[in-house]
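Sequence in, structure out. Go.
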Amino acid sequence: MAIVLSIQHTPQMTLNPFAVLNKPPKTRVPYELKQGQSRIFHQLPSGLNMEVIIQKSVKEKDPDSKNDPPLVFVHGSYHSAWCWAEHWLPFFSNSGFDCFALSLLGQGESDAPSGTVAGTLQTHAGDVADFIERNLSLPPVLLGHSFGGLIIQYYIANMRHKPHSEMQNLYPKLKGAALICSVPPSGNSGLVWRYLFSKPIAAFKVTRSLAAKAFQTSLPLCRETFFSATMEDNLVLRYQELMKESSRMPLFDLRKLNASLPVPKMTDYSTEILVLGAKDDFIVDAEGLNETGRFYGVPPICIEGVAHDMMLDCSWEEGANAILSWLNGLSR
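Output:
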């Protein structure tokens, strides 16, 4: 079930029925939608509502050719659906794809569950699966950034082998999955230990920035953690304010999360995987990127001149074009 909050000149929707609702924003700095974008709320089986920012393809569908798969975007810590809406949703909708950016529970404008953390790998992946199951008619491509990539890794390890499998406890089948600057299958503990031994100053900065949330008050540290050194102050400040408001509670209990890892191996090897990293990533190092590539048996692609927040960085087109090239090459 989905509830419309606001629509900005969007083509007719094909999702489940909507009811109009004027909801006050949960964040003090709400993200202003761009032309062609809409915000809906998908109601989960728990009764909680999950924010979804939608931007439909601007291209006419060819009835004689196979439709491009819908794209479903999953953010990481301290972010929500807005991080995809800034650049990549317009880019991919202009390239012919229907785009859906989700805000996980406790993030952005989504409802918050009871408790001290937003969920687990299983609950977050289950929420993504519920949205896909109830709203999309074609197997989508899932795109996940940072911890969102780890959620997708759990999803694909628990996926149905057939589009309409009788095994209802498994997640809907995908066309593909893109893991973008993703936390590797073993989690972030290996990253932390490598930094401690090889780059102790960087390890201190990462811990201070993320664990102590110092990126929220330090513009230089926010830039160094997420963006390229050349990003202008006004942009870093804007994204810093949005990130402050994006996460009302932690995505995970990290201790419990790390104890549950690594994620299981995928069982459906027909799902195509893209592993994409950033050369100037301050959070996920080259070994973390290579670990993910080895785990899925694919060579990782590393984009030069881009930082961890690839979808927001100065050269955001570089990562978008790499993904578009991969999407265009997916087996039809």
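Check: The first helix runs from residue 82 to 85. DSSP finds eleven helices and nine strands in the chain.
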